[in-house]
């Protein structure tokens, strides 16, 4: 393949030398990297805020491309970059609330997920109102959020199960509220029902297809594999919900799916985008190894089999060699999203090699827009554009606390 046909730039960064210390005793990355990344983050954040204001679309309140994504970034900044500055911290929470209150009329009552639908906006409002002392409003939004569970659990055959538009994306909204306000905030019975609905749906399709996998999922009639539309994302969300009885009683079926996915890994370390498509091409969070790594590490934590960790480590190799994408710097199908694969491996293994690799991808993002990448349709958005890059850069400052936004609990 000639370099012009490739979807990625050749990675010319040196790999980890095995000696340099990258972390200080408090877990943060060492100087001068810390100050450099902080400075670059502030620079990009300023550009991003200005760009967002100028290109704002009040009809799009999604986390993926719209106002919801900017609100999520602001919430994240209040917990990371501005954690120790009480005034700034409160200001960013208020900014997030302002954006969401302004875009509330954009709620469509259609899509059921954190990333693309009303539950994302509602669950952020639940958290923000609560943090800013407006408990009655927080409760109202929580009731609205929970009332959607009837539809999610009602067996609507047109509702998919995947993370971007389906039940697993609704599940994340509930986990998000729990993560910020405590597990007791949401009745475990409801979470259990949502997981059961996802499991029932997978079982139904598996039986219908006489598939040897106990759980099967499709989106638009294709058996997608990846984190955004596929089985990787669905199974990952279930494994992040271990307290649910329905998940506990189906761990064997869930593990069979993980086993099956392991067998689908390409020799390169990547994964197919769907079972219908056997080409080793896309290395994105949404399709491919950078999303699968999160599931494989989780499966290793839950089931304890070395095989799952070595599958995850293989993902890390292909992301390093082929992960500097021409599609840009975002988190869905860009360099920042791919770098989260390294942060995930670093958190699991403690191996500084992975932190080094994440830092090199961060360095790549410092030259935002200078590599000749395609400009995304929503250049300042969280999932396609600059807001996602800023989110990643603040996460790398304190790598042990990093989490892929709207996906990792
Ligand atoms: Zn994508």
From TrEMBL:
<dbReference type="InterPro" id="IPR007822">
    <property type="entry name" value="LANC-like"/>
</dbReference>
<dbReference type="InterPro" id="IPR020464">
    <property type="entry name" value="LanC-like_prot_euk"/>
</dbReference>
<dbReference type="Pfam" id="PF05147">
    <property type="entry name" value="LANC_like"/>
</dbReference>
<keyword id="KW-0862">Zinc</keyword>
<dbReference type="GO" id="GO:0005975">
    <property type="term" value="P:carbohydrate metabolic process"/>
</dbReference>
<keyword id="KW-0479">Metal-binding</keyword>
<dbReference type="GO" id="GO:0046872">
    <property type="term" value="F:metal ion binding"/>
</dbReference>
<dbReference type="GO" id="GO:0031179">
    <property type="term" value="P:peptide modification"/>
</dbReference>
<dbReference type="InterPro" id="IPR012341">
    <property type="entry name" value="6hp_glycosidase-like_sf"/>
</dbReference>
<dbReference type="GO" id="GO:0005886">
    <property type="term" value="C:plasma membrane"/>
</dbReference>
<feature type="binding site">
    <location>
        <position position="286"/>
    </location>
    <ligand>
        <name>Zn(2+)</name>
    </ligand>
</feature>
<protein>
    <submittedName>
        <fullName>Glutathione S-transferase lancl1</fullName>
    </submittedName>
</protein>
<comment type="similarity">
    <text>Belongs to the LanC-like protein family.</text>
</comment>
<feature type="binding site">
    <location>
        <position position="333"/>
    </location>
    <ligand>
        <name>Zn(2+)</name>
    </ligand>
</feature>
<feature type="binding site">
    <location>
        <position position="332"/>
    </location>
    <ligand>
        <name>Zn(2+)</name>
    </ligand>
</feature>
């Amino acid at each position: 393949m000639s370099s012009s046909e490739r979807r990625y730039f050749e990675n010319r960064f040196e790999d980890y030398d095995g000696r340099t210390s990258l972390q200080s005793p408090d877990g943060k990355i060492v100087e001068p990297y810390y100050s450099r990344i902080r400075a670059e983050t502030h620079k990009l954040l300023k550009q991003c805020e200005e760009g967002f204001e100028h290109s704002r679309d009040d009809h799009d309140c999604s986390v993926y491309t719209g106002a919801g994504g900017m609100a999520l970034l602001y919430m994240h900044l209040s917990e990371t970059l501005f954690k120790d500055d009480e005034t700034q911290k409160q200001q960013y929470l208020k900014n997030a609330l302002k954006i969401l209150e302004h875009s509330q009329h954009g709620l469509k009552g259609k899509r059921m997920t954190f990333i693309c639908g009303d539950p994302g906006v509602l669950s952020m409002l639940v958290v923000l109102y609560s943090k800013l002392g407006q408990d009655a409003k927080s409760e109202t939004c929580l009731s609205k959020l929970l009332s959607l569970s009837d539809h999610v659990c009602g067996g609507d055959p047109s509702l998919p199960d995947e993370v971007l538009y389906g039940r697993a994306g609704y599940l994340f909204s509930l986990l998000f509220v729990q993560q910020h306000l405590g597990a007791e905030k949401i009745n475990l019975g409801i979470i259990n029902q949502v997981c059961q609905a996802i499991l029932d749906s997978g079982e139904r399709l598996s039986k219908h297809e006489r598939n040897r996998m106990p759980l099967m999922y499709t989106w638009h009639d294709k058996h997608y594999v990846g984190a955004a539309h596929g089985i990787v994302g669905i199974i990952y969300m279930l494994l992040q919900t271990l307290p649910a009885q329905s998940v506990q009683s189906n761990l064997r079926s869930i593990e069979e799916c993980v086993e099956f996915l392991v067998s689908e890994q390409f020799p390169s370390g990547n994964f197919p985008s769907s079972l219908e498509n056997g080409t080793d091409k896309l290395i994105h969070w949404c399709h491919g190894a950078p999303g699968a790594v999160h599931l494989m590490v989780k499966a290793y934590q839950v089931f304890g089999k070395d095989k799952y960790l070595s599958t995850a480590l293989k993902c890390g190799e292909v992301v390093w060699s082929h992960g500097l994408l021409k599609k840009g710097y975002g988190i869905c199908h860009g360099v920042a999203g791919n770098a989260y694969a390294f942060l995930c491996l670093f958190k699991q293994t403690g191996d500084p090699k992975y932190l080094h690799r994440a830092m090199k991808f961060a360095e790549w993002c410092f030259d935002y827009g200078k590599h000749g990448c395609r400009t995304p349709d929503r250049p300042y958005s969280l999932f396609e554009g600059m807001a996602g890059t800023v989110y990643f850069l603040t996460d790398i400052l304190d790598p042990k606390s990093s989490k892929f936004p709207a996906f990792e609990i």
